[in-house]
Design goal:
single chain; 34% helix; alpha+beta; 2 helices
Length: 70
């Protein structure tokens, strides 16, 4: 499994639930969570081969910033 970490500007738990639902529709096997307590509002995605570019695109289309941290 690979874990990809993204910096976001998501602020509310309700927003995280919606973003997770959108990503899981396309990738049901992904394990996804947010850490809103972190200053970077971290999005973590765990999968065999996470498609990080698609995740960034989904989050951006929902109106949020999303930057992959390496």
């Amino acid at each position: 499994m690979v874990v990809e970490i993204f910096k976001t500007n998501v602020e509310k738990a309700a927003q995280t639930n919606y973003i997770i639902a959108v990503i899981k529709r396309q990738f049901p096997s992904y394990k996804i969570n947010f850490d809103l307590e972190d200053c970077d509002k971290i999005l973590r995605v765990e999968a065999v081969e996470p498609q990080w570019n698609v995740i960034i695109d989904y989050v951006n289309r929902l109106g949020f910033s999303c930057i992959r941290l390496e």
